[in-house]
Amino acid sequence: MKLARVVGTVVSTVKDENMQGKKILLVRALDASGQVTGEPFVALDSVGAGVGEDVFYARGKEGSFPWHPQPVPSDASIVGILDPFNFPTRESHTGTEGTQK
Amino acid sequence: MKLARVVGTVVSTVKDENMQGKKILLVRALDASGQVTGEPFVALDSVGAGVGEDVFYARGKEGSFPWHPQPVPSDASIVGILDPFNFPTRESHTGTEGTQK
Amino acid sequence: MKLARVVGTVVSTVKDENMQGKKILLVRALDASGQVTGEPFVALDSVGAGVGEDVFYARGKEGSFPWHPQPVPSDASIVGILDPFNFPTRESHTGTEGTQK
Amino acid sequence: MKLARVVGTVVSTVKDENMQGKKILLVRALDASGQVTGEPFVALDSVGAGVGEDVFYARGKEGSFPWHPQPVPSDASIVGILDPFNFPTRESHTGTEGTQK
Amino acid sequence: MKLARVVGTVVSTVKDENMQGKKILLVRALDASGQVTGEPFVALDSVGAGVGEDVFYARGKEGSFPWHPQPVPSDASIVGILDPFNFPTRESHTGTEGTQK
């Protein structure tokens, strides 16, 4: 999975029927320092993420697992929201995660 | 999924039988400002997109979901058309999408 | 799918048994002007393509669909041959494809 | 699979239910000399890896095989830990691996 | 599939149980002239390749096909060995492969 920030939403009246009623977000990747980088791309939301939140998303077939067995034609889906104040590469953070299992 | 613009169509008499009768389009990726970028590639159309329209497409196995369970050998398929005047990264757009669910 | 030109064939005596008897081709990607670009890679042929022909190929699981349900371990397979004199990004071409459906 | 080093952990309260109770790690790719390179990304741990260890991970659908048939939406999972003092590209190493089968 | 050269082996005591007893190799991609290029990565061997041999490998789900239906979490597997003296992009080679079918 990769880290990304939600930067917008996508409005599409004409789309695959299995995408009807789902939130389509525009996201950008995050680099090691937590800054957005690269081109924006489209990801389907499965956890209720909103614009401005930092998330991680799965690509490929795994991108449709949250709606399994519905054949949603998504190749990138947001599967988790980063907790605020916990960007993973910060020094103070990596030293205190031993309790997460 | 990624944003792209339809830039042409592909004419192929000799092709996999599961592609017979389907519209094969040539598309190019869109960057954050809505400009085409990178090399054109081939995508199968599942929503009726035409040359000049902005779309988003799914890659990988998901690219064949719109025709499921027919084993269409497509690894990139257009699954939605962007509504006109709604390019997602524009300021005026991202602020008003709260109603899309 | 992506556009490519067949540039050679691959000779392999020792290979996966599901690849026995299939034509293994070496191809290179085509850019917007129809020129080869990037490194050559290996693709399995499912439509009878030959050296010098322009084709489009599917990657990933879709690359094994033409031989389904045989579990051919191919991640890139040629699924269509471009018609001669019809390179998709040429001006004279994109304007006359309305009849392809 | 690719070589990577575990550089941190990811804290996410809101995530896909199939990720609950699993360790989510942040890793960075390793280059030929064993140095970290590129942006960090998120991988699910299936072998008990910890921060500082060198591992190799599988991407794509294979990334969810360790939990099969649970539909874990992971596209990158750590499937092995490199033995210490055995970085594969070191001269003294490649010459002595004939016994591994 | 892509062309690569086997450059080493990987020693991993702690790994996914479906990888136990399989040879794990380190490979590097080959460019058009047959030289290694890019970072080394990890591939599972299914055909008995050894260090120094030129091979082609399949990525993604296809990478686990040689062990099907065992759910081996490999996303890159060597599926064929190039015959010696037959690098595909050499002039003298591409002209004499018409008999391969």
Helix content of chain A: under 10%
Side-by-side strand order of the widest sheet of chain A? 1-3-4-6-5
Provide the CATH architecture of chain A: Beta Barrel
**Number of DSSP E strands of chain A:** 6
Per CATH, the superfamily of chain A is EutN/Ccml
Q: Can you give the mean pLDDT of chain A?
A: 81
CATH fold descriptor of chain A: OB fold (Dihydrolipoamide Acetyltransferase, E2P)
Label the overall shape of chain A. globular
pLDDT under 50 segments of chain A (min length 5)?
A: 91-101
CATH class of chain A: Mainly Beta
Q: How does the helix and strand content of chain A classify structurally?
A: mainly beta
- What is the count of helical runs of chain A? 1
Strand content of chain A: 35-45%
N/C terminus separation of chain A: 18 Å
The most extensive interface, with participating residues per chain, is: A-D, 35 and 35 residues
Assembly state here?
A: homopentamer
Cα radius of gyration of chain A in angstroms = 15 Å
Largest sheet of chain A: 5 strands, mixed, barrel
H/E element sequence of chain A: EEEEEEH
Number of discrete domains of chain A: 1
